Amino acid sequence: MIPQGLRLGVLGSPLAHSKSPQIQNAGLKFLGIDGDYVKYEIVPDEFDRKIRSLLCCVDGLNVTIPYKEKILKYLNRVDPLVERIGAANTLVIKDGQIHGYNTDYYGFMESLRGVDLQDQVVSIIGAGGAARAVVIALEDLKVSKINVYVRNPEKADGNLPYLKKTDLEVKLLSETSDLSDSALIINSTPLGQGRLQSSMPLEHHQIRRLQKNAVVYDLIYSKTMLLEEAEQVGLRTIDGSQMLVLQAAKSLTHWTGRELSPELIAAMSLAH
Ligand code: NAP
Fold first, then answer.
1. Contact 251, 268 (CB under 8 A)
2. Residues with CB under 6 A from ligand 1
3. Using one digit for the tens of pLDDT, what is the confidence trace for 38-83?
């Protein structure tokens, strides 16, 4: 039987731990929209062979690791933010046309509401797909400088988007890196998640040296050791769960045309 409702899903690999189906299906239910959101896992070796047949038979997709950049060549039109960031995480597919959006930007921005970063120094650890959206958002928040700490500076240089207005410096991450100039420190590595749950991107002494009013933000969706240690020394922390729900809610509005209301965000948040 042909499904009648909206056919949505998340494309990535691996997807075993993805919470997107439960969050998005709760959003669809709240809005009273007939549809289903499922996982579409395609392993990298099979991506180019399988992607077209998937794009043919769905109304919308979220795109996650490792395809946010690779998907761009399959899109007919991209939002200006996708061009700046160089990655898309939301596809709207209608009348054979595929449009790309980036809602990670929105989720990150909104999760920092109330944190004034204008003219402040910000440090990001890691320079993968998530860092690209974060860097563009920080430029729009008018920070004075962005330090990007990585284990492989050459690779990071090639992966980060070009900034017109903000100074960005890539630095080697080491035990002696001093982040005490930063008002906001963001972990965008997987250190602290899954099999790396007991790892931290910074050493204890580096966390203790941070500014007293610094905010420590971990893009990982749960309370990580980094956040626990930061809280122990009295720092304000933010975990990735708000960003996760906010980017998901924004994607849902692209597919449904419905308003991004606080009630929708609350319903999706409860499901996560
Ligand atoms: P990614 O593209 O794989 O990038 C990961 C970055 O971390 C790369 O710069 C990588 O360096 C670095 N890294 C990996 N292992 C490391 C290690 N052992 N030591 C130092 N650096 C290491 O991943 P991503 O898409 O940017 O995602 C990063 C994190 O953000 C993940 O935990 C993801 O779940 C989370 N995330 C959260 C949200 C949200 O909504 N809250 C959204 C997107 C992502 P190399 O390039 O040298 O490997």
1. no
2. 65, 104, 107, 126-131, 150-152, 155, 188-191, 193, 219-221, 240, 243-244, 247
3. 999 999 999 999 999 999 999 999 999 999 999 999 999 999 999 9
